[in-house]
Amino acid sequence: MLPRFNTLGYTRISFKFLVITSVITAITFGLLLFWFSCRQEEHIMEQVRKQAAILHKQIVLTRQWVAEHGSLLLPKSAEIRPNPFLPDPEVLGSDGVTYVRISPSILTKSLSEKAMKNDLYSFKITNTDQMNPSNKPDDFETEALNIFRTSANEGIFRIEENKGKTVFRYVAPLKTNEQCLQCHMAQGYKAGDVGGCLSIYIPMDEARAVIDRNRLILLTGGMGFAGFLVVLLFVPARALFFKPIGQIRTAMSRLTSEKESLENTLNRGDELKEITEFCYLLDKKLKDHHEELERNIAEATRDLSETNQNLADANRELERLNRAKSDFFSDISHELRTPLTSIKGATDILLRKSSCESPEYLDIIKRNTDHLIKIVADFLEYSRIEAGELELEISEASLKEVAEDAIISQKASAQKRSVNLVLISPEDRIFTFDTKSLYQVMSNLLSNAIKFSPPNGTVTVEIVFSSTGTEVSVKDEGPGIERAYHETIFRKFYQIKDQNRVRLNQGSSGIGLAICKGLVEAHDGRIWVHSRPGRGSCFSFFIPYRVKGREERK
User: Fold this and answer.
1) Band of the pLDDT at 259, cuts 50, 70, 90?
2) Which 3-state string (H, E, C) describes 170-222?
3) What pTM, to 2 d.p., does this model score?
4) Which end of the chain is more exposed for a tag (fewer CB within 10 A), N or C?
5) Does residue 445 have a pLDDT over 90?
6) Across the chain, how many H-helices and E-strands are there?
7) Could you read off the pLDDT of 81-101 as tens digits, one per residue?
8) Which domains are assigned to the chain?
9) What are the residue boundaries of the Histidine kinase domain, all occurrences included (predicted)?
């Protein structure tokens, strides 16, 4: 028997699907989020770099404007002090006010201090040949100056810690122009040289906050969308795959009836593993069952061969007995026919002599002799049909005329029972058939119809011609025949067990309809009956226009 296994749902493969899709989705979205985050950070840093570059240009333009006007004079105050490195750092105005000469360098430093106080940004000027020691470059600025003096680089930047804060540091070159040479001629500069660099410090707190906020938004949105995608994939997969798999497992469980050692094997994997193992097991069971069936079939075949041999022997014996029976009927019919013919002839002679004192007894002898002669003739006819020795005398004739002759032959019997005989044949055709055989068929059908018709009843013979053959029907108004007997009544020696029929069938041989069937089939036709109890019977037979000869039928 096939093993039974656990059928508590189908969560294992669905759980695997959920985990795998979640991991794949998480990795995919993680990579995408990382890429987007990097791109966004690059974009923000690019904006900061552009902001620093724009600030550098603004400072440079401001310095150029001051340099073009020689210097900037501002009233002397505690915040604005003279530059000791400039000649004539102080100027007395006509209004008696002392003004301080502001150089581009001092202006740059003042603006930086002002911006630093407002937590915006800061910047400073530096040079390797500085006049002011406070403008001494650090390592990054020294490296930047070397780069600017050896290549056409517009600026370099990096992120660093400055005074405990993360800043974006941008270093760009300061090139010497004609106005700058007025103060820096002694340093050996000429127009177009890199006289120093400008370091700009932009706080990264706001940029970092934007980057972190964008990362959080991307992470939250990505996780939400990933979860939605996993659910979106799982729901139809559950309906399309996992539920049918569960139904398959349930059907598999119904095919099993007991637990075996293979149960643990079937339950170690997921549902697909169970189904695969079950298929292998089922294949093995089917192979074993197939082999067992083959053994049983082989044994049954041997028994069947023996039975067939016994049946063949019995059939041959039955055929031998049937031939012996047919020979017996044929022989006894021949033996009876001669003395019966003699008795009939002698009876006819006595009936014609008026000297007979008891003619009614001779009439009884004549009727029974005629009946015996008919029975003997039927036996001889059926013996020839059964033995396949029936010879048809095919000739062109009118079936309507044969039907009229058959009606005339049965007219006396019909008058005795007050039965009307009617022939319906709208037309007549000449075709080939054995007139004697079909005459006998119609006579037998008419005789039976008259026998079972009530007094003053009507027996109708109808002939219908078609394109392929002729159909003849004999209809009576008798008690009818149940449907269960419609086939069996055409067997030899078969009679319906009915009290109303026993009285009418007394003395019947029971082979009249069998002879009719044999004669019709000898014409390649067929015979049948339509009847219901209490509604009469209609016996019909069909004869095709072309009738094969005996040799053709073989």
Assistant:
1) very low
2) EEEEEECCHHHHHHHHHHCCCCCCEEEEEEEEEECHHHHHHHHHHHHHHHHHH
3) 0.39
4) C
5) yes
6) 15, 14
7) 666 666 677 777 777 777 777
8) 11-211 (no CATH), 394-553 (3.30.565.10)
9) 331-547
